[in-house]
From TrEMBL:
<dbReference type="GO" id="GO:0006227">
    <property type="term" value="P:dUDP biosynthetic process"/>
</dbReference>
<dbReference type="GO" id="GO:0006233">
    <property type="term" value="P:dTDP biosynthetic process"/>
</dbReference>
<dbReference type="Pfam" id="PF02223">
    <property type="entry name" value="Thymidylate_kin"/>
</dbReference>
<dbReference type="InterPro" id="IPR018094">
    <property type="entry name" value="Thymidylate_kinase"/>
</dbReference>
<keyword id="KW-0418">Kinase</keyword>
<dbReference type="GO" id="GO:0005524">
    <property type="term" value="F:ATP binding"/>
</dbReference>
<dbReference type="InterPro" id="IPR027417">
    <property type="entry name" value="P-loop_NTPase"/>
</dbReference>
<dbReference type="GO" id="GO:0004550">
    <property type="term" value="F:nucleoside diphosphate kinase activity"/>
</dbReference>
<comment type="pathway">
    <text>Pyrimidine metabolism; dTTP biosynthesis.</text>
</comment>
<protein>
    <recommendedName>
        <fullName>Thymidylate kinase</fullName>
        <ecNumber>2.7.4.9</ecNumber>
    </recommendedName>
</protein>
<dbReference type="GO" id="GO:0005634">
    <property type="term" value="C:nucleus"/>
</dbReference>
<keyword id="KW-0067">ATP-binding</keyword>
<dbReference type="GO" id="GO:0006235">
    <property type="term" value="P:dTTP biosynthetic process"/>
</dbReference>
<keyword id="KW-0808">Transferase</keyword>
<dbReference type="GO" id="GO:0005829">
    <property type="term" value="C:cytosol"/>
</dbReference>
<keyword id="KW-0545">Nucleotide biosynthesis</keyword>
<comment type="similarity">
    <text>Belongs to the thymidylate kinase family.</text>
</comment>
Length: 211
């Protein structure tokens, strides 16, 4: 049986990494084969350029950085597909939803959601995208907020608005399940597990690439 592709999304500091780690551990305890990946993968050449940009050590044109984030995903796509086919479930911390939303949130007149979507088309489509929902204000209260490029209230509020649009009105809206991420770590973890167990039990959706 093929593995599932489970994505976590949310604002900066929503708790994605923490919840991904907990889910991976819990699925492994259930005896499943699981791999955890995170985008951007800062280790590849494209990821190193992204890392330097996010840390404010280099500048990039808005379109160029968008394409670098996309390239960073395409580099990983063959191994994602291979693992899924071989029965490994993949848990991804941020994916092309972030890719589209963060770029469009800059309000660059030549970089809207539609433009941003283009380079992502054809990437493996998730079985489910869990949106860990927190307000920009609550996220900003969490440890470490403010150290990277997009970690400011105005940007995060716009990002949340655009995620809201994706969840309500976009062709990908059915990919999403929203979970309130402002509760305790254990409470969020429990909700995540419920949602994932339900998704795992579903008849295998056709594994279509992003339209
Ligand atoms: N980006 C990314 C793009 O612009 N385009 C793209 O294509 C992609 C993929 C880096 C930036 O790049 C942008 C988006 C980002 O701005 P990143 O490396 O994933 O992306 O950076 P962050 O999302 O900022 O990663 P963080 O590690 O900061 O956030 P997480 O993973 O959401 O949060 P986590 O789990 O590390 O938790 C943060 C803190 O909050 C606490 C944790 O203990 C930790 O201290 N916490 C809670 N506290 C109380 N209650 C809870 N329920 C909590 N959950 C977590
Ligand atoms: Na993270």
């Amino acid at each position: 049986m093929r593995g599932k592709l489970i994505v976590f999304e949310g604002l900066d500091r929503a708790g994605k990494s923490t919840q991904c780690n907990r889910l991976v551990e819990s699925l492994q305890q259930d005896g499943q084969k699981v791999r955890h990946i995170k985008f951007p993968d800062r280790n590849t050449p494209s990821g190193q350029m992204i890392n330097s940009y996010l840390k404010g050590e280099s500048q990039q044109n808005d379109h160029v950085i968008h394409l670098l984030f996309s390239m960073n995903r395409w580099e990983a796509a063959p191994s994602i597909l291979k693992d899924i086919e071989e029965g490994t479930t993949i848990i991804i911390d941020r994916y092309y939803y972030s890719g589209c939303v963060y770029s469009a949130a800059k309000n660059n007149p030549t970089l809207n959601l539609k433009w941003a979507h283009g380079p992502e088309e054809g990437l493996p489509r998730p079985d489910i995208c869990i949106f860990l929902d927190i307000s920009a204000e609550d996220a900003a209260k969490r440890g470490g907020f403010g150290s990277e490029k997009y970690e400011n209230l105005q940007m995060q509020a716009r990002v949340r608005e655009l995620f809201g649009y994706l969840m309500q009105s976009s062709p990908e809206k059915d990919d999403f399940v929203r979970i309130d991420a402002a509760g305790s770590l254990n409470h969020v973890q429990q909700r995540v597990k419920e949602v994932v167990v339900k998704a795992m039990g579903r008849v295998d959706a056709e594994h279509l690439p992003l339209r």
